[in-house]
Design brief:
single chain, mainly beta, three-stranded antiparallel β-sheet, two-stranded antiparallel ribbon, 1 helix, globular
Length: 89
């Protein structure tokens, strides 16, 4: 869900920005989320990097922007979580 930034430029649903939370460059996302099973929504929304609302804009995911590959399997109970970050041109 692209959005327009403060300069009127169309931005993608994800972008890198400086995070005051992490004090480094992080990924920021816009979009919507569905937590399944639904009865876990209140718990999951308390974790850092999970939006407290179903629809969000420019939300700090607390995922550091570091070029490379990360194997984050097991993080937050995931079975497989691979992250490939490539530099923007």
């Amino acid at each position: 869900m692209p959005e327009v930034d403060k300069n009127g430029q169309l931005q993608p649903a994800w972008q890198q920005e400086f995070s005051s939370f992490a004090n480094m460059t992080d990924w920021f996302f816009s979009g919507s989320q569905v937590i399944n099973p639904a009865d876990r929504t209140a718990i999951c929304e308390q974790f850092p990097g999970v939006s407290p609302t179903p629809v969000f804009s420019n939300f700090d995911a607390v995922i550091p922007f570091v070029v490379g590959h990360a194997n984050l399997s097991g993080l937050f109970g995931t079975k497989e979580f691979q992250l490939q970050e490539t530099p923007f041109p």
